[in-house]
Amino acid sequence: MADAQAEMFKYFEPTVQWNNLQLSNIHTLASWGIGTAAGVLGLTGWNGFIFFLLNWVFLSTLVFFVKCQGKPAVFFKSSAMDIAVTPIMNTMLSYVLVWTLMHALVYIYD
């Protein structure tokens, strides 16, 4: 019983929500920047997705070691899952939107 109660009060929910909001902002802004870079560089097809995945790994590593000081369990409930895995689909959708927009602006509408 004591372990369940300790686990329940391990995290202060407003702080966890604030951390998730900040992480979401980092992912969104990074996806816009990475999408802009991919569009301007003229990446198409799988090259663009590989570019995204490489940058995603780099960004997740930075957040893990710089922002969380290597201890994401202190800041997030599911630790590394919240940083790298959970937001990848939403971030990829933003990336594809900006990537195609920038590619169209630079290469199609010359």
UniProtKB/TrEMBL annotation:
<dbReference type="InterPro" id="IPR008504">
    <property type="entry name" value="Emc6"/>
</dbReference>
<protein>
    <recommendedName>
        <fullName>ER membrane protein complex subunit 6</fullName>
    </recommendedName>
</protein>
<keyword id="KW-1133">Transmembrane helix</keyword>
<keyword id="KW-0812">Transmembrane</keyword>
<dbReference type="GO" id="GO:0000045">
    <property type="term" value="P:autophagosome assembly"/>
</dbReference>
<dbReference type="Pfam" id="PF07019">
    <property type="entry name" value="EMC6"/>
</dbReference>
<dbReference type="InterPro" id="IPR029008">
    <property type="entry name" value="EMC6-like"/>
</dbReference>
<dbReference type="GO" id="GO:0034975">
    <property type="term" value="P:protein folding in endoplasmic reticulum"/>
</dbReference>
<feature type="transmembrane region" description="Helical">
    <location>
        <begin position="46"/>
        <end position="66"/>
    </location>
</feature>
<comment type="similarity">
    <text>Belongs to the EMC6 family.</text>
</comment>
<dbReference type="GO" id="GO:0072546">
    <property type="term" value="C:EMC complex"/>
</dbReference>
<keyword id="KW-0256">Endoplasmic reticulum</keyword>
<keyword id="KW-0472">Membrane</keyword>
<feature type="transmembrane region" description="Helical">
    <location>
        <begin position="87"/>
        <end position="109"/>
    </location>
</feature>
